[in-house]
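Might you be able to consider the sequence and fold that I enclose below?
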Amino acid sequence: MKLRHALFSVLAAAFCIVNAEDKSTSAPKAMPKPEIVKTDDEWKKLLTLEQYEVTRGRGTERPFGHIYEEFEKQGEGTYHCVCCGAELFTSKEKFHSGCGWPSFYDSSKARGVLEKPDNSHGMRRIETVCRRCDAHLGHVFEGEGFKTPTDRRFCINGVALKFVPKGGEAPKLLDVSSEAVQKKKDEVAREGGVEAEK
């Protein structure tokens, strides 16, 4: 009886140790910080009201709108972030899902899309954002049964994308600097007794 009790205690302790190790290895990873950081006022100067509300305010455009109709007609090309110009998707990954928003089964090889947990509105979803500037793009869903190579659906707000037809010139990438960054540089330069470059 004592042996059985001792064996049970050892097994219970081993289970607790294994379970604790599993929890420590599955801890969420820190998300990379975006390269482009701007104030709300700076973004408002660069974007339309709808682009700002979706990309910076984490909003959602209405389904089956004008932007979606344009998306459905677009041929070969590349989709870039409307905020910073980073490459996000190509027409190779595009497919018709019928959901009313642009759909892709994967991001482009440029890997400009970052996926992160989103537990807002009482739901558990995966949000997609621009890796470079943290612009909200939409969400990605898995296992819906679409006959695509990944069985994933990147459900993306069309206003978050800038389409460049094949052979067209990609948008210029937004500079890393911002008014806030420049202000800090000027401050540091003044403290060091140096006139900041303009």
